[in-house]
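Weekly modeling sync, notes
Attendees: AB, CL, MP (scribe)

Item 1: holo prediction request
CL wants a bound-state model with zinc ion before deciding which constructs to order. AB pointed out that an apo prediction alone won't tell us much about the pocket. Agreed to run with the ligand included and paste results into these notes for async review.

Input as submitted:
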Amino acid sequence: MKKSVVSKEYTNLQKEIIKLQEQWKQSLTPEIVKPSLDKAAIEAGVPAAALTAIDFDIPLFLQWIDEINDLISKQNPEQGPRVKKLGELLDSETAIRWIDEAFSLNQFYFVSFAQENEIEEWIPQFFAETALRPYLQLVAEVLKDEITQAIPGLGCPVCGEPVRLAQLEGEGKKVVNCPRCLAHWSEKRVCCSHCGNDDHKTIQNITIEGDPTSQIQVCEKCHGYVKVIDTRQFISKPSSAILDLNTIHLDFVAQENGYTVSARESESN
Ligand SMILES: [Zn+2]
Ligand SMILES: [Zn+2]
C-alpha cells in the first residue's frame, strides 16, 4: 500500500497548522462559550455549535490569520506575496463576517470574496476555517459530557462535519472522532454512520494490506465509508486531527472504490 498519495509539503503544512491550533485553543477560556442546548433542535440534528453563543475575540482572530500567513509564507515562499495580501483586506467587520460564513460553511461567499479581491480561490475559506476551529474544539470540549451520540447522516453532532474517522477502544468499542472539532462519541461496531444501517450483510470492512490497524467500514446501502483505526496498540495516541491526516490514503482507497462521506440513502437521492 502506497502511503505517499499526498505531497509531503501538504502534510507538513497541515501538521504545523494543527500545532498552531492546539496552541491557540490553549489560550482560550471555556467561559467564552455559552451553549444553550435545545433538546428539540438537537434531536432535529442542529449541530450544538450552532446553538452556542461564542464570544469571539476579533483582534485575536486577526492575529491568528496573520500567523497562518507567516506559516504559509515561510513554508512556501512563492505563495507568500499572494497570501500576504489577505492581511490588508481584513478589518474587524470582515473578520466577523468570515467567522459567520465559515461557521455555516458558505463556500459561495468565500469564492466570491476571492474573486472580488483577486486572490486564489482556496485562500479565504482555508484561512477562516483554520482560525475558526479552535473555537469549535472548545465548544466540543465544554459539551463532551452532554453530546455522547450522533444522528446517522447528520455528521458531527457538535460542528456538522461529515463523519469519516473512528477509533477502536477497550474491548473493540467503536468511537467516532471528528477531526474538525475533536468531538467523539460511541457507535455500534456494525453500524453505518451515514445511514444507520446495522445489517452486517451490507456493512463490509475493507482491510489494508500491510496495515493491520486500519480498516475502512463501508455500507452497501448508502455507499458511505468510515475509516476505523485500531489505535489500542499505539504507543502514543495522536489527536484525531493528526490521525485523520495520517490515514488520508484510506480516504483515497474508499473514494476510488466509489464510497463517500456525504452519503445519503439511495432512495432519497
Ligand atoms: Zn465536529
Ligand atoms: Zn449507510
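Recorded for review: Residues 122-142 form the longest helix (21 residues).
Action items: CL to compare against the apo run; MP to circulate these notes.
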